[in-house]
Amino acid sequence: MALINFSPPYQREFMRHTISVLVENKFGVLTRIAGLFSGRGYNIDTLNVGPTDDPATSRMTIVTRGDDATLEQIVKQLEKLTDILKVQDFREDEYIDRELVLVKVAVDSKTRAEVMQITDIFRSKIVDVQPKSLTIEITGNESKVEKFLRLMKTFGVIDLTRTGKVALPRK
Amino acid sequence: MALINFSPPYQREFMRHTISVLVENKFGVLTRIAGLFSGRGYNIDTLNVGPTDDPATSRMTIVTRGDDATLEQIVKQLEKLTDILKVQDFREDEYIDRELVLVKVAVDSKTRAEVMQITDIFRSKIVDVQPKSLTIEITGNESKVEKFLRLMKTFGVIDLTRTGKVALPRK
Question: Among candidates A94, A102, A21, which has minimal Cα distance to A64?
Fold first, then answer.
């Protein structure tokens, strides 16, 4: 049985890896992939899976931390699995990565303008306005997103949802 | 053993549901959730999981299709699972949803300007430029993203990665 553990921050002392896996839309794919990581004691920070241009395949992006030698073994085992078409380990290659976060921030008549100003500086978007909250969409790499969220914490984060990272090679 | 199937488009005749699940960062959570869906013959269109404001929890967003009665049972069963703190079924409530897509589009000296123009109209961003390609970040709800991708197909999609949808209630 596959086990999976989303790493809490205090376990995040290892190097981070971003793995992109192109899979066929077949039963059991997610379970088998997750099982490979957890079987080696590898935690998953974020995971996402979505359709590609080809209706028969999906692409999964997994962000994980651990030592390089173990990860190399995982990548080799992934490549051997049926229904897995391609595995890319972005730990060394040049790549572009982005994440999307929706965050609902507490505001009142005094703080609304300030939150709007910060949103503007980060080139993020206000996607909903309520009397006591603003919902903001921010995209970027991890450091940008984390910086923005730290600022929003000072106003009060009511709700938050993150897609996890997706990545594409530059070349 | 949990089995999961990413629905190919020809199976997408059912109503779509967006489920947001707040989970504790414990072993086996992803497997157990995926198992509940697949055990009822429910396919998953997209799935993502990422950290929340609380280091002990993660939020998972699952987009699935199927009949309402079965989904209600799944939600009830999810609520009973240990390590699951909250389940929201966004099929009826008013909510905001967004997805992020990175797409690498083939361009040459003739088509580059046209792709840039369309990118501008969709308020999306060019995040990388290569001699024969542009990589574009687009965010939005499904209909906006799908419309943009259909347009990009006419130029040639080289590579594509999607985060899957995330959602927050408006209120």
Answer: A21
Is pTM, for the whole model, over 0.90? no
Strand, coil or helix: B125: strand
Whether B18 contacts B168, CB under 8 Å:
no
Query: CA–CA separation, A163 vs A46, rounded Å?
Result: 8
Strand (E) or helix (H) holding B84? strand B84-89
At A143, list the tokens.
């450091």
Q: How many CB pairs under 8 A join A and B?
A: 208
Beta-carbon separation of A163 and B163 below 8 A = yes
Question: For residue B14, how far is the Cα from the chain centroid?
Answer: 17
ipTM exceeds 0.90: no
How many C-beta atoms surround the C-beta of residue B41 within 10 A? 10
Disruptive mutation site among A23, A96, A105, A161 for chain B (greatest number of B CBs within 10 Å): A161
Burial of A10 (0-12, 13-18, 19+ CB in 10 A): exposed
- Specify whether the backbone of A140 is left (phi greater than 0), alpha (psi in -120 to 50) or beta: left
Q: Output the CA–CA distances (angstroms, integers) from residue A17 to A32, A87, A93, B146, in the order listed.
A: 19, 13, 11, 29
Instruction: Please tell me the distance from the alpha carbon of residue B43 to that of residue B82, in angstroms, as a whole number.
Output: 23
For chain A, state the CA radius of gyration: 18
- Alpha-carbon Rg for chain B in angstroms: 18
pLDDT tens-place string over residues B32-71 = 787 777 777 777 889 999 999 888 999 999 998 777 888 8
Distance CA A163, CA A48 (A): 7
CA angle B127, B131, B135 (to 5 degrees): 25
